[in-house]
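Thread: Newbie trying to understand structure tokens

Hi all, I'm a second-year student working on a class project, and my supervisor (Dr. K.) asked me to get a predicted structure for one chain before our next meeting. I've only ever worked with sequences, so writing a 3D structure as a token string is new to me. If someone could post the tokens and maybe explain what I'm looking at, I'd be very grateful. Here's the chain:
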Amino acid sequence: MLEWEPRLLTTRQRLHGPNQWPSSTQDPNWGPKFRDIVTQYTTQLKLLSERLLVLLAQVVGMAPEQMLAHFVDEPHVRMKLVRYPKLSEAEHSLPNVESLFGVGPHKDYGFFGLLLQDDVGGLQYQHNVMGQWIDAQPIPGTFVVTLGEMIEALTDRHFPATVHRVLVPRNSSRQSVNFFYCPRPDAVVSPIPLPISITKTPIAQLDGDPNNVIYNAYGENALKGMCRSHPDVVQAHHPDLLHLAFPQSNTQSA
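---
Reply by user tm_fold:
Sure, no problem. This is what the structure looks like when written as tokens:
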């Protein structure tokens, strides 16, 4: 885990911006009604997220207001509406078809995600100890909840972030709605004293990617995640941030 670096405090400007809504001139279905639906859905999931935070605080022995303090004023809320195209005819015949991913293995860099998936399937998570990949079978009327790196930081790795991936759908496209509830950009998430009922159990976690460090400051950790996910975009628009993705040469672990 890496300590917060004040010299990197340009995060709010880089993480915040206006939503880029589709134009109704391109397709009448992308009009105000779509924007209203997405906005209402986001509002409801923010309320649900606050309830989950209170429950998490009870589990780890924090006062609810202490947990919510990381999010006060402007939590970093993100939502993605994702469509994964099915395999093409040419891709079906590839020798490595089993290793094709819609999204490769990764951890989310915030607190937690709420994933609403259709009935196609393809989302998998990795067992913390054994390492095998387990299907997150679609269950109507439910969300898949993934823990993020900030919860891993808060609990000093006792609650590890969920490693997950998405396989390329074979016979039909897959759609999912992914909501991420994260602290405000300048929040610093430090390990807390945990109840003995948690700490008496040894930390069960696979050795992860040594290049993927976790920053205590959420904003820096979010920018690190973007650097790792979209290095070409970062190289083009924010080249001064690339050191966040591979910081071993110029930072010290806590």
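A couple of things are worth pointing out once you decode it. The CA atoms of residues 59 and 195 lie 9 Å apart. The two ends are 5 Å apart (CA to CA). Feel free to ask follow-ups in this thread.
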